[in-house]
Amino acid sequence: MNKGELIDEVAEKASVTKKQADAVITAALEAIVEAVSKGDKVTLVGFGSFERRERKAREGRNPKTGDKMDIPATQVPAFSAGKLFKEKVAPDN
User: Fold this and answer.
1) Angle at 16 between CA 11 and CA 17, to 5 degrees
2) What is the C-alpha R_g of the chain?
3) pLDDT tens per residue across all 93 residues of the chain
4) Which residue, 20, 62, 76, 87, could crosslink 16 as a Cys pair with Cβ 3.0–4.6 Å?
5) Other CB atoms within 10 A of residue 58 CB
6) Closest Cα to residue 27, out of 12, 7, 52, 47?
7) Which alpha helices (DSSP H) does the chain contain, by range?
């Protein structure tokens, strides 16, 4: 499902126009990205959590040459699925 298909689905389920659904989804995503980029954790109960994680510096290899190279420490966005989301995806587990 891409963003357009998500907008169609939300518009139908919420009985709003596609334009309204697009505005709400876009605003929600922007708010999540902004909060995580500031270092805040965003938790949507039943869905999951978005947060910024530290990735330590490490040694890697250039895949073309095989030469060792240092990969610097960085910060990356991370998502952890919530309990209800996990249960919906894998009900047997």
Assistant:
1) 80
2) 19
3) 999 999 999 999 999 999 999 999 999 999 999 999 999 999 999 999 999 999 999 999 999 998 999 999 999 999 999 999 999 999 876
4) 20
5) 9
6) 7
7) 3-14, 18-37, 83-89
Helices (H), 15-57: 18-37
Residue with tokens 């596609």: 18
Whole-number pLDDT of residue 37: 96
Q: How far is CA 29 from CA 17, 20, 26, 44, 74, in A?
A: 18, 14, 5, 12, 22
Q: Please provide residue 41's backbone torsions phi and psi, each rounded to the nearest 5 degrees.
A: -100, 135
Taking a C-beta distance cutoff of 8 angstroms, is the pair 78, 52 a contact?
A: yes
Given the structure tokens 């999540």, which residue do they identify?
A: 32
What are the tokens at 37? 């980029």
